[in-house]
């Protein structure tokens, strides 16, 4: 009986250690070179790709309609990718500002190699106010210098895009 109790305790200890080790690992962005034609999340079909609008046109449509745009495809250049998980990115607009992209339902991530690539995004967009805390959180994820993080003191109105899928186009 004593042997069974020792054996059970050992089994529980080993399994607890195995699970603890498995969940304590840190995961980074997925590997990959983000080559032309690579897709992340849901696929982008050729009709959506050919109808993709520029980031500038997206901004104008959002100002004009003053609401959320659903099922919109946008093309642009990736300027930044979350260094921790690849869970967000920024797209450069024609006036050198940026808009923020998150992945729908946190369902997929992108490699940091996507930075500097041109992509087509499909999803929804809206103008939102981003709090100081949220801006600082994303700046920390991007490993920005502390001086840049400390300089964030005001909420910011910006375009927020939720991507269903992303395709590298060059």
Please state the CA-atom Rg, rounded to the nearest Å.
21 Å
Main sheet specs:
5 strands, mixed, barrel
The parts where pLDDT drops under 50 for at least 5 residues are 7-25
Structural class by secondary-structure content? alpha+beta
* Helical proportion, percent range: 25-40%
Order of helices and strands: HEHEHEEEEHHE
Overall mean pLDDT stands at 84
Describe the structure in brief.
The protein is built from five helices and seven strands.
Describe it.
The chain is of the alpha+beta class. 32% of the residues lie in helices and 32% in strands. It has five helices and seven strands; from the N terminus they run αβαβαββββααβ. It has a five-stranded mixed β-barrel. The longest helix has 23 residues. About 11% of the residues have low confidence.
Features:
single chain; 170 residues; alpha+beta; 5 helices; 32% helix; globular
Per-chain topology:
Blueprint: H1 2-24, E1 39-41, H2 46-50, E2 53-54, H3 55-65, E3 69-81, E4 88-92, E5 98-103, E6 118-130, H4 132-141, H5 146-150, E7 156-168
Parallel strand pairs: 2-3, 5-7
Antiparallel strand pairs: 1-7, 3-4, 3-6, 4-5, 6-7
């Amino acid at each position: 009986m004593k042997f069974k109790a020792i054996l059970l305790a050992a089994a529980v200890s080993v399994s607890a250690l195995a699970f603890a080790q498995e969940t304590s690992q840190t995961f980074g962005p997925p590997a990959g070179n983000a080559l032309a034609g690579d897709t992340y999340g849901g696929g982008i079909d050729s009709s959506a790709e050919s109808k993709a609008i520029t980031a500038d046109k997206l901004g104008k449509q959002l100002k004009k309609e003053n609401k959320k745009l659903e099922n919109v495809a946008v093309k642009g250049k990736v300027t930044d990718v979350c260094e921790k998980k690849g869970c967000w990115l920024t797209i450069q607009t024609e006036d050198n500002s940026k808009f923020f992209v998150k992945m729908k339902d946190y369902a997929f991530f992108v490699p940091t190699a996507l930075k500097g690539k041109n992509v087509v995004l499909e999803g929804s967009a809206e103008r939102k106010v981003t709090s100081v805390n949220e801006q600082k959180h994303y700046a920390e994820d991007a490993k920005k210098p502390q001086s840049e993080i400390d300089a964030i003191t005001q909420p910011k109105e910006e375009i927020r895009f939720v991507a269903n899928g992303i395709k590298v186009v060059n």
